[in-house]
Amino acid sequence: MSGHRVVVIGGGVIGLSIAFHLAEAGIDTTLLEQGTLGSGASRATADVVRSYFAGNPVSSALAVRSLDAYHAFPSRPGIDLPLRQVGYLVLFTEPEQVEAFEADLPAQRAAGVDVGLISAEEARERNPLIGGFPLRAAAYSPQAYISDTTAIVTAYARAAEQAGARLRTGCPVTAIDAQAGRVGTTCGEIGADAIVCAAGAWSASLVRSAGVDLPLTEPIEQELLTTDPLPRGTPDIPVTLHAASGLLVRMRDDRLLIGMGYPGRDREAWRREVAEQLAATYPSLAGLTLRPAVTGLRDASPDKTAFIGHRPGPPAFLYATGFSGHGLCNAPAAGELVRDLYLNQDPGFDVTALAMGPRRTGRP
Question: What is the pTM (predicted TM-score) of this model?
Fold first, then answer.
């Protein structure tokens, strides 16, 4: 593929994965990032890599494929990617939640996810912090790991550069002409045989300018909170989601990292709600001071599934956006799929489930 020039817009974990996979395939690849690598949604994650996404077997299938790729990373010289297995626990307090899990289970299993229903007693054994509220059952998947998003960004950046990609930071894109294969930046104009949009929360205007109508929602600000140091002897626990409230917790050194939906306009009211739900779910942690840990904008799609697609050229235009908080778990597969779409190779995946079309919008 010598002579083929591809420009990837976005230096988060998705864009870096794409740049690596393209460069590894011998394609002349330049990545453009407006800030520093990983400075968008990639810096506002819980550092959790998991495969189970309830009610979303497409994202789960991407995550299973990605998890295999993450496990293969330590074999690359000079590149270390930490993965500490902790498991993923989802607490069900309503019968409808159990019914929805059981209805979704065949599709999850078909996607390769290792997940099953466990009793309330076993759930409390796995997470002894769970309080005495009525708990009907739980889902448990061992395929969940604590990683380090900064390390993943660094690993993909090094791998991409080793494969020959050029990574240009501090170089915002000001305009694209997808028909002519031109990308305008504050650093000058760049010509390309293909343009890939992986700009996360900043993708909407770029894909529109390329004539692709993606129903991306407005960027959402994510905030994660952290506690003060936990009491000595606090047990290690799986990543745990309280399904009814969306309260997600995991251990982070000697503290708890906490998420629960999105803050919205009244951030202080949201933080009070988080504190109340934390106390109700984990009574032994009631009264702990909660502090902001990380914030950042993330992209979002209406069905919480990524948009990955290809408008053939020349020049070609490809997109990988709308990951809705699943980016860290989907990044390796996203890079592989964009590479295969560009090279017209069989991606081994039903990409029509990801591309823009009637299946995603309901429009005829």
Answer: 0.94
